[in-house]
Amino acid sequence: MQNIDIETINAQIRIDSAFLDDLKRETQKVIVGQEQMIDRLLLGLLTNGHVLLEGLPGLAKTMAIKALSKAINTKFSRIQFTPDLLPADIIGTMIYNPSLNEFTVRKGPIFANFILTDEINRAPAKVQSALLEAMQEKQVTIGNETFFLEEPFLVLATQNPIEQEGTYPLPEAQVDRFMLKVKIGYPTLLEEKEIIRRSLLEENPENTIRAVVQPADILKARQSVKRIYMDEKIERYILDIVFATRFPKNYGLGELSNLIQYGASPRASVNLAIAGKANAFLHRRGFVIPEDIRQICPDILRHRIGLTYEAEAENMTSEDIITKILNKIEVP
Length: 332
Known about the structure:
Blueprint: H1 2-16, H2 19-27, H3 35-47, E1 51-54, H4 61-71, E2 76-80, H5 88-91, E3 92-97, E4 102-107, E5 114-118, H6 125-137, E6 139-142, E7 145-148, E8 154-159, H7 172-175, E9 180-183, H8 189-199, H9 215-226, H10 232-246, E10 260-262, H11 266-282, H12 290-301, E11 306-307, H13 309-313, H14 318-328
Parallel strand pairs: 1-8, 1-9, 2-5, 5-8
Antiparallel strand pairs: 3-4, 6-7, 10-11
């Protein structure tokens, strides 16, 4: 009976995920390479999660989310975070209208489907909190009115890893609200050659992107993701990985005890499960396999593991710890 159910789910997922080909084809008109970044943006979109991107300037972070927004026929908004930014600059404020002799609401740039927040660590804590509250609650209160944010709603925040002067690092509890933290690398030589060629074209490739998906298709896909089958062994695998970050000695990883200050929160377990299902959806599968979990583990866990001074002295990163855990925990 279980096999029949999985076959049915498989067939349905293949139908429901058909739009992914069109979506990727449109984004590839302007994005060369960076397939992992596009996949992680889609993971966030399919799971109603948010993405924190870390990478050097000029690696197509802005272009990727703009292309995705155009291809899905949604509203895009970009916010450049600066030290003098105020919460009202993001969520909006009350404006006095002399002709009506009353205050009216002026909505801020947060009222869009795709929000790109450039250099989130450049703004002070009050502004960061205003953004993170909107991300978590999916609603904004201006004056006495509460406004619900339109779905799909995806926040892509970027931070520059090399400039730390004049920045306000996100507290660990707030970073935890991001489902994924993705590190972006340089393109290959051939990819950069293609980037040069496209930049010299007469017509801007961005103008050729068509809206091939509607917001309703994304919301439908989210429901399909939830129906993907996850075996109890995969659930146990997720729990073993997360608990190994908290109690490494229990998993034969005693050498990590002095390197981990604190382990991953319960959000990590939940997000690994949801993202694992979404990863299966991206691969047109109706069931989750261990490789789905292993692929997204670094992006889910890297910002949820606190390192000790000893780890930093030994130049150990959270990725090194994740790799050791994945190599030790038995794959079901």
